[in-house]
Design a protein that fits this description.
Layout lengths: L2 H18 L3 E3 L6 E5 L10 E4 L5 E2 L6 H20 L1
Helix pairs in contact: 1-2
Amino acid sequence: MTKKEIKNAINKAVYMYAESLGYQMEDFNDGSYVTFIKPGSKSYDDSIDYSRSYHETCTMNWASDETKADAELIERYAKEQMKKY
């Protein structure tokens, strides 16, 4: 597999994992990040940004504890996927 194929495989697995946690993915076509947000969220404060290149998550400091915990789970899952490849 090429590096691009590996990154795409990791990202696809992470997208499916985030979906299994109840998140929807929003892609603003900037190419570097996607945003995971649960349907019915009152604001983007409880969203998770995911870096496609570095396979890391980022949340607001004032996000809910649930969102922060989910971000940690998603990032941990991404790291596990990276070890596979």
